[in-house]
Design a protein that fits this description.
alpha/beta
Length: 186
């Protein structure tokens, strides 16, 4: 049985640096399939929507999360923090608390930015949010890509920096090893 990793991009831009980084992961291993879990059509989280009937886009989003063996979130950092669209998606994925689709799901975090610190602040915030949701985040590993605009080709389609590609591949291999060898505890 082929296992699947879901990719969530924390940027809505079609050719965002982070989407390019996430896309590069899909060519690094043959033993796993990848599927995109899109967040661009999710309405703003509102408990009234849960009461009146969860929108189909939210139901589809949660189903996509449920169907994968693990998730890698690849996100930019906006104003030293998590993008609002990603926070919104995580809020939807946390509901209802008793059966939240991300609870105990293995998640990896990657982030890229043109700035010099990578996405350190955003990743700290994302980890804090995921911990509150009881999500299993890949421990002891960080993948912070700084100066990403210098590591992408001029057409903004491909990651061209060899060192970053090696780091990404190593991170992905560690994430896969963690999924394959860590039992999920209830």
């Amino acid at each position: 049985m082929t296992r699947t990793i879901g990719l969530i991009c924390g940027s809505l831009r079609e050719n965002s640096y982070n989407r390019i980084i996430a896309q590069s992961l899909t060519d690094m291993v043959d033993s796993y399939q990848f599927c995109w879990i899109e967040i661009n059509d999710l309405p703003l989280f509102n408990e009234d929507l849960e009461i009146s009937g969860v929108p189909e886009t939210v139901t589809s989003f949660k189903s996509a999360i449920q169907e994968v063996d693990g998730i890698i979130i690849v996100s930019p950092e906006y104003n030293s923090g998590i993008p609002g669209v990603l926070k919104n998606a995580l809020d939807w994925a946390s509901r209802p608390r008793e059966s939240a689709v991300l609870t105990k799901k293995p998640v990896g975090l990657i982030g890229a930015t043109p700035g010099g610190l990578g996405t350190a602040f955003a990743q700290m915030q994302i980890r804090q949010i995921l911990e509150a949701m009881q999500v299993h985040v890949l421990p002891f590993q960080k993948m912070l890509i700084s100066q990403v605009h210098k590591k992408i080709d001029s057409d903004r389609k491909v990651l061209t920096d060899d060192q970053t590609n090696r780091y990404l591949e190593r991170y992905l291999q560690q994430f896969i090893h963690w999924i394959d060898h860590t039992p999920v505890q209830d």
